[in-house]
Amino acid sequence: MRGTSILIQRSRQRNNVPRLLPTRALSPSATVIPSICTSCLSILRLAQSQLPGSHALPIAGYVAAFHSTTVSLASSRSTPKENFRKAVGRNKVLREMIQKPSRMVLSERVGQSPRDRNSSRDRNGNPRWDEKSVDTGGGMNRKTFRLRSDDKQQYSKETERRKRDLRESSTHPSPSRFEQRPSVRERPPAFGSRLEHSSTLRRSMKLSLDALQAERKQAADELYSKAEARSVVRQQSEGRPRFGAEPYVIPIRPERPPRDVLQAERRKAAQELESRYSGRGRGAAAESDKMFTRPPIRRFAHMKHIASLDHVSSKAREITHAAEEQFGYFETFDLLPQTLEALYKDGLKDLENVTPTPVQSLVIPSLLDKEPAPSLLPLPKNFHKPKRGEARTVNEYQPSQNFQTYLIAAETGSGKTLAYIIPLMDTLKRRELAKKEEEKAKEAEKEEILNSKTWMFDIEAPPVTQDTTVGRPFAVIIVPTTELAFQVANLIKKLAYTIKLRTEMITREVSGKAIRERLFRGQTTDIVVGTPFMIDRITEANPEMLHRTSHIIVDEADSLFDRSFSSLTGPIINRAINLEKLILCSATIPKSLDAYVSKTYPECKRLVTANLHAIPRRVQLQVIEVEKDPYRGNKLLACAHVLGNISKDQTEPGYKKRIVVFVNERETTAAVTSFLQEKGFDAVEINRDSDSRSILESFTGEKEAVDEGKEDGKGAMKILVTTDLASRGVDTKTVKNVILYDVPYTSIDFIHRLGRTGRMGRRGRAWVLVDKDSNHDYVKEVKKTMFLGQALI
Ligand SMILES: Nc1ncnc2c1ncn2[C@@H]1O[C@H](COP(=O)(O)OP(=O)(O)OP(=O)(O)O)[C@@H](O)[C@H]1O
């Protein structure tokens, strides 16, 4: 073509999908078609063979339109030929152009041989064609060219040779693609245009069109069967393919199995699951449960690496859901009137229309005990009280064998404390009332005998028993920190006022003398709350103290059975020789706890809520990249900046904003607190020397109105800087914002720290500061899991 040359490289078409290939326009006036596929090649051939240069320009546009049609057909499973035919059928302009060429576009080169289309003269400058204008009567200025006789001969020879080659190649199997392509040197000399070169090349490679298509079809079938995602590069413009735009990838999806096949598979899997559970004990079910439903998610690799949470099966969660829906009101639990009264009046004061939380619906009916207390085993005669400084012997008692064990696990701030306290107090009160009734009956009987004449012969001497109630509690609650002991003891005291039970707290804050007086001053103590260290010390010196203990509750059990506490918690349990119920309670079940419980208490009953290990979606987590501007690695600055932003927002108008900042190491608390104080924030830290109880009280109490004149900014904020000391169990229900100054070491710490906000259905916000030493991927995974509402692993 004279004015326009559209050069097309040889294209391959795989998998029935037109592939775009780069082409070039040589002439500056040419229409640039950046990419084209083989299906469109035919059109261009037609244009080049039939049209003069100036008319090839609009043809380029037609080709673009044609190409878009073939691309849209590409996802169908028809062959390129069929696609081509369909595309022509759809495109009116092209159809007309191909079927009956317009008179308007035909010009001087009509009838020119495809060979040497660009030059009408040979090397010697002689005209190749005898130019003779012939009016064919079909067009306005149609011209025809007569071939010179020698050229005519050469042309017919060439045609003959091509046909022969094609016949031969179709009888031979096609070589592999790499073998097919000859090196540049081996290639036949260019003959005519590049278009011609392309067809010559194909001929020289002895590839028949049929063989090529068969190969493509096979490749396509393979791809579909393997369900490999192949890609079609399309250029996106208003949802339609266009040339020159950014490419994007559309994966070809594998064929979906029919619906009935899928349903049958699911049914089979469900039956298998059912059969694994039916007719087995709880322990076995739990075992198979674990085996069968190990988390299939591999994408949370970083979380898996760091975390140590145990997986809770979907079956266990389903069971819980069913149980949770059963109880809508506290009245349905069949509690004593005084327990109900205490619950509404003291436990959930100032709350209207309270209903049991999921964990309470699950736990209260399971722990309620209406049976009378069983008779006590006597104390062993050889009770050994170790002297001061003497080595402890752990296994000197015969531990109780017949107690039931429960593992209660529910998300943070879900009301676990009341879930175990209410049934415990109700049971103790029931037993107390039953005992009183029994004593009353005995008294009446005695009176009757004394009044009768035969009393001298019938009455028996009263038995000598060790059945004293002084300093021998019925229940012991062990918690890991003094702060938590204070909180739990406070709640029990409130309830006990109405229920009429006595409770005492034993922590390091209480002196030895005070404990002695409280416990052994001559009155019955029903419930003792304390830290493991203190309870262990006292019960080691006075093992008879646990003689009547029927209930032991281990709150934050994962912490109390870890390496630092297990040497204290285990012996306490062993000393309770009349133990009936051991209740382990926690918001997190690490693998270590699960293994310990399975081994030590194989018959343990697990009461686990459906959302265990999931941080509620109502808590938003934001990640602050400390290394980036404007902080440039300055974590203190980042923390102050976040606090500054919190101070400006209008989230808690009229009330003091309470914010908790968690750090990993105790030493960091002082540095962070003093920096924040320097910046004008009201920040306090909890450390060994500080009065943690009063500090925590100001964060666990009800909302506090802001001082006059300090309605806005830093004056309306209260910041607590702490380690994990305040991360477990502390009921910071009015805290809306939590800052994780350091990335927590484990998912367990993540759950407990973030659990200080968003409690009992409230909304919360959290920020985590990520610096160069932090594991970014881990934080990303936690954030993603939170967003999805999934359990952390
Ligand atoms: N049924 C209820 N309705 C409304 N509020 C409740 C209910 N039960 C408990 N609460 C309140 O929920 C708050 C959180 O309870 P609690 O401290 O027992 O949570 P938790 O599950 O032990 O949390 P953590 O795992 O952090 O120790 C408390 O302020 C409590 O008064």
UniProtKB/TrEMBL annotation:
Residues 75-199 are annotated as: Disordered. Residues 114-134, 147-170, 178-199 have a biased composition (Basic and acidic residues). It comes from the Eukaryota. Its EC number is 3.6.4.13. InterPro entries: DEAD/DEAH_box_helicase_dom, Helicase_ATP-bd, Helicase_C-like, P-loop_NTPase. It catalyses: ATP + H2O = ADP + phosphate + H(+). Signal peptide: none annotated. Transmembrane segments: none annotated. Keywords: ATP-binding, Helicase, Hydrolase, Nucleotide-binding, RNA-binding. PROSITE patterns: HELICASE_ATP_BIND_1, HELICASE_CTER. Residues 397-607 form the Helicase ATP-binding domain. One of its GO terms (molecular function) is ATP binding. The Q motif is unique to and characteristic of the DEAD box family of RNA helicases and controls ATP binding and hydrolysis. RNA helicase. Belongs to the DEAD box helicase family. This is ATP-dependent RNA helicase. The gene is MRH4.
